[in-house]
Amino acid sequence: MRPESGEREDAARPDDAGARAGREARAAGADAGAHRSGAGCAAGRAGEPAPGSTPRPSGKPDAARGAQLYAANCASCHGATGAGDGPAAAALQPKPAHHDDGNYMNALSNDHLFQVIQQGGASVGKSPLMAPWGGVLSNDQIWDVIAYVRSLAKPAYTGSVP
């Protein structure tokens, strides 16, 4: 979408939240090549954080709180049920992850999901269009979102969320 005359391209517009998040993610992901190669990455390889480097939740993660956060922050791209079919998904390439795909999601560690949400897709060698949410969500809120995302998987996730 082109800005109106005199309007900054990065100005906030309610109908442009997904595109704005994508621009911010691309800007934040400028060093994504270093993360993909493992250079400068604490984990030494893209995709999995270093053992013990992920903050633990202060209490038990709450999937109900996570559902509210997911609806407000994630569903525009990932869809209300995690099928990758949110309204902003049509304009994204690659398409958002299907959080309801248990065959894919269940193989990912909780620490991996935390890193993707907190630091964005580029931090694990995925699309920089997945914006980093660490500046918006607290660590405990991220864990709540992970608890909710785990509830979407088919087949069901049988592991635990810290």
The overall number of domains is: 1
Helix segment count? 7
Topology, number of strands: 0
- Alpha-carbon distance between the two ends: 41 Å
Write up this protein:
With 162 residues, the protein is mostly helical. It has a single domain, classed as Cytochrome c-like domain (Cytochrome Bc1 Complex, Chain D, domain 2, Orthogonal Bundle). Helices cover 38% and strands 0% of the residues. Helix 3 packs across helix 7 (139-152) and helix 6 packs across helix 7 (139-152). It is globular.
List keywords for this structure.
Cytochrome Bc1 Complex, Chain D, domain 2; 7 helices; 0% strand; disordered N terminus
Give a nutshell description of this structure:
Helix content is 38%, strand content 0%.
Secondary-structure blueprint:
Elements: H1 17-28, H2 32-37, H3 63-73, H4 75-78, H5 102-105, H6 110-119, H7 139-152
Helix pairs in contact: 3-7, 6-7
